Amino acid sequence: MMELYKENREKTGQRVELLAPAGNYEAFLGAVNAGADAVYLGGEKFGARAYADNFTTEEICRAIHVAHFMGRKIYLTVNTLLKEDEFAELIPYLQPFYEAGLDGVIVQDIGVLTLIRNCFPELALHASTQMTLTGPEGCAFLQELGVERIVPARELSLDEVRRIKEQTGLEIECFIHGAMCYCYSGQCLFSSMLGGRSGNRGRCAQPCRLPYQICDSAGRPQAVDAAYPLSLKDMCTITYLPQLIEAGIDSFKIEGRMKKAEYAAGVTALYRKYIDLYIREGREACRVSREDLDRLQSLYIRSELQTGYYERHNGREMITLHKPSYAGSDESVLAQIRAAYLHEPDRAEAAVKVTLEKGRPSVLQITGEAGSVTVEGAAVEDAIKAPLQAEDVRKRFLKTGNSCIRVHSCDILMPQDCFLPVRAMNELRRAGIEAYERQCILRQGMSAGRTSDIDIPTWSVNDTGSVEKHTETDILVSTYEQLAEAVQHPCRRIYIDSDLYLARYREVTACITARVNAGTAEGEHRAQPAYYVALPYILRAGDSAYTERLTTLTAKGSDNANSPLIRGFLVRNYEEAAFVLGLEGGFEMVPDAGLYCFNSESIRFWAHYCREYTLPWELNRKEAGRLARFAQSAGMRTVMTVYGRIPMMVTANCIRRTAGQCPKAGTAAAASTFLQLKDRYGVVFPVAINCTHCYNIIYNSVPFSLHQQENVVKRIGADVMRYDFTTESAAECRQILSGGKPFGESCTTGHLKRGVE
Fold this sequence. Notes:
CATH architecture of the largest domain: Alpha-Beta Barrel
Number of domains: 3
Structural class: alpha/beta
Number of helices: 24
C-alpha cells in the first residue's frame, strides 16, 4: 500500500495536505509555523463558527499573502445558510479575498455555491461536510456543478470514503482530529428549536453536551449509567494515519476554529511529524509515542478519545457517558508551543542594491533565493541644497516594515551631489518589495492575486402583498395504519415512507388499490391522490440492495394493471437526488426541508430539476412568504408542513445501542421502534430507531402544528399544506386531518414568529 501511495502521489505531484483551523490571526501563524499545508478560517460573516474571534477583511488578505509566500493555502468558510436579505452582501464580501488570491471556499448552501461559481469561476468550491454527502452519486451530482473538493459526512467508513474517491476522482477532505457532532454532519435543528440559535447558521448552543436520560417508549429509565448519551468523544486518528493516507484522502482536516492558538499549533505539529515520518519511512516507523499521545491529550481535548467512524458504524464506546467537558491543559506544554510557533514566520533573506544616477530613473534590485527583481522609480535630480547621504539612503532601504523580506545587506551606488525625495524612495522600496514577494509566491506555485471585473448581481425582494392561492393538501405516512386513514381523506398526494413501502409492499398496494376501486364504484368525481415514496433521511453505500428493490417496485409499467404507480419521490439529501435523476420513467422529485431551499438562489437551482420544494424549518413568516413569492415567479410550488414532529437530529449513533439493546449485537431489543430522551427538566423527546438504515431520528418534544392558523399559510402564500405523521395513531391522524388539535398535547409553531439568528 505504501508503494501504491507513493506511485499515485508521484503521478499527481501532490502530497497529503494537512489542513489546520484558525479562529484568529495568532492561530493562523501557529498553524503555518507548525507545518500546516493549508489553513481554513472564517471572516466576519457567513461562517459556521459565529462565536469564534474570526478575521477582519484586512487580516484575511494578510493571511493569504503570508501563506502564499510560504507556499501554503487559505480556504475561507462560507458554510452557513444565507437568508435572502444577506445575498446582496456576499459577493462584495468575497471580492477582496478573491482578488488577494484566495485558494478555495467551503460552502454548505446550494444557492451560495451556484452564485459563487457564476461570479468567481476561478475560485475552487469545496462542499462542506454539512451538505451530508454519503456516496459517489451525490458527490458526482455536485461535481457537475463545479465542486472540486468534497468534505464527506463524518459518519462514513474508510471504505465508503475510498469508494467516493475511486468513482469520482474528486479531491477528498476528511476530518482527522477534534470535536464531533452527534447529528449527521452537524446538520442539526436541536439548538435551533430549543433556543433559536441555529447550528446551520453558525450559532450552535451544543445541547448534545447536556445530560439526558434514556427511557423506553413507556418512559421507564434505561442505561442509567449513560448520563450524556449524545456527547461524542473527541476524534484522534494519529495512530490511524497510515490507513487514512493509503485510502487516497487528499486533505487531513483538524477541527477547532473555536479553540485557542496553542491548540491549532500543537495539534498541527504532531500530525505533521507523523505524516512526514510515514512518507519517509513507511508504516513500521509510524508508531506514535506515549509522550506525543499525552501531549495531544493535554491540548483542549475532552477526557476521552476515539478514532471516529472510520472503523465502526456507531457504538457506546464513542460516547462520553459521564464527562463531556474538556480535560485540563498542561501549561508547560502550552508555553513550549507559544515559544516555538506563535510568532510571525521567518522572513526571506535578501540583498538590496540601489543605483542613483542623475537624470535617469532610480533603480532598486533585490536578490535572494527566489532570484532577482529590478524595479525603476522616479528620476534622480541634481542636489540644489542638501545632497543625499549614502548612509541615509541605506537606512531607508533596510526598512521592510511588515513584509515577508529581511534585507541583510544594502549596496548604494550614487554620486555625491544627487537628490531623490523621501516619498520617491519609499515608493521605490515598496515597489521592489512587492515585486520580489510576488516572484517568491509565483515560484511556490501559488496565486499572487487576481483582477476581477465582476458584475455584482442585485436582488429585488418583494416584501409586500400576499398571493391568494388555492391551497392543496399532502399527507406523509410512516405506518400502515396511518396510510389506511390517509386514503380516506381528500388530498393531492400521499407520501409513503420507503421502509413501509418495501416492508409491506403487497398490503400497501392492496390498500391503495382498494381505495381507488371504491371511489370508482361510488362514482366519486374528485381526483384520486398521487402516490409518492418518501426516501430515508440517509442513504449510504450499504443501501444498494435497498435502492435496487425500490427501483424494481416503482418502475413504471412493472406492476399489474390494477396497481397504482408511484409518481415521484420525496428526497432528503443529494445522494437521493442523484438516485431519482438516474431513474428511467421521468419520476417527479420534491426536495424536503433538510435540503434547505433557504433563499431565491437555492430555489433557482432546484427549479432546473423539479417543480416544487419544501420550506425549511428555520424561516419566519416574512422570510417564508418572500421565498414563496419568488418561487411562484420561478415556476416553483411551495410546500409547507403544517403538522408534524420536527426531526431535530438524524444520527449515525444509536440510542438503543448506547442503552445496550441493539438487536444486531445479540441483545434483546425494545418492543417498540421508539425510545425516549428525557432532559434535566423532564421534557421528553421521542427517538425513532431505524434499524433498516441504522440511524436514529430525535424528534422535538411537541408537534409542530398550525391547526388553528390557516391564515398563516395563506399569508405566506404556500401552494400545498403537508401533514407529516410519525408517532400518531390512526385516530390521531383522523382528528388532525379534520382540523383538530393533537390528543392531549401542546404544540409549537416553530420559528414562524421569530425565526433564527
